What does this fold into?
Amino acid sequence: MSEALAIDALTKCYGDVAAVDDLSFAAPRGRILGFLGPNGAGKTTTLRMVLGLIKPTSGWIRVLGEEDAAKVRSRIGFLPEERGLYRRMTPVNAITFLAGLKGMKAEHARRRAIELLESQGLGEAKHRQIRLLSKGMAQKVQLLSAIVHEPELVILDEPFSGLDPVNQLSLEALIRSIAARGATVIFSTHVMQHAERLCDQVVLLAAGRKVFDGTVEAARKVAPRSVVLEGAFGMDALSDLPGLNGLTLERLDGGVLRIVAMLDPSVPAQVVLGAVFAKGLPMDRFELREPNLHEAFILLTASRSEAGSA
It folds into this structure.
């Protein structure tokens, strides 16, 4: 079977409120999927339904070929949004203990725990109580506890929350290594930069409904490109340039004006540049910027919000 997770028409209602509304998507095996959306979009509710922690109102879920996640629990690794470890245990003992709950023998689990801790720069802390570790170190220990048994499907709920930039990059590298051995990784986040760097596929949620499902590149194309112009000219000089919308400006030193404008998709950047030269504008900089995932995300979630309030 090519799919580690398949969801169809999944809905979860609390009274008259649909926390998740008719959601469908599939996560192929061996891929990294970003499950994205603002806070309250329904990400955590969906992941809890996938794991069988709460029951859907309607729809179906298939995890590693089974409709009941409990049947494949030993093949799943899960990092919940709410962190929690036994604070007086050491990292090596905590990981070994949780590995035992997944069916690993104690000797193998302990050896594997030490290997993981050392690979993540936590070797010197392996016998220190977790309550004495930094937040980033403790979070790494909990993540290692979720993958110690080498699961086929790894689900991480807001794994980057609260981590400093160095630990975020370290976690990104760990996620890549998990996928490199053939596992499927699904992680939820509302920070687009992580998804942009990591994901083969992104699913965007807004107000409980899916607004996009595809590659990062395809998502970026939803948003228009922008143009940056800098030079010692006035705003009136740009008044009749073709294809520029939503101009923002900034005054720089030396009387230089920086303009950032959205480019109409029907107007090639070369046409704008040609018009600049034709007007003889004193241009110091002309840059075409491709949209990023954050810009696409804002556009897609805003469209969903407007549709929901209409």
User: Anything to note?
Assistant: DSSP finds nine helices and 13 strands in the chain.
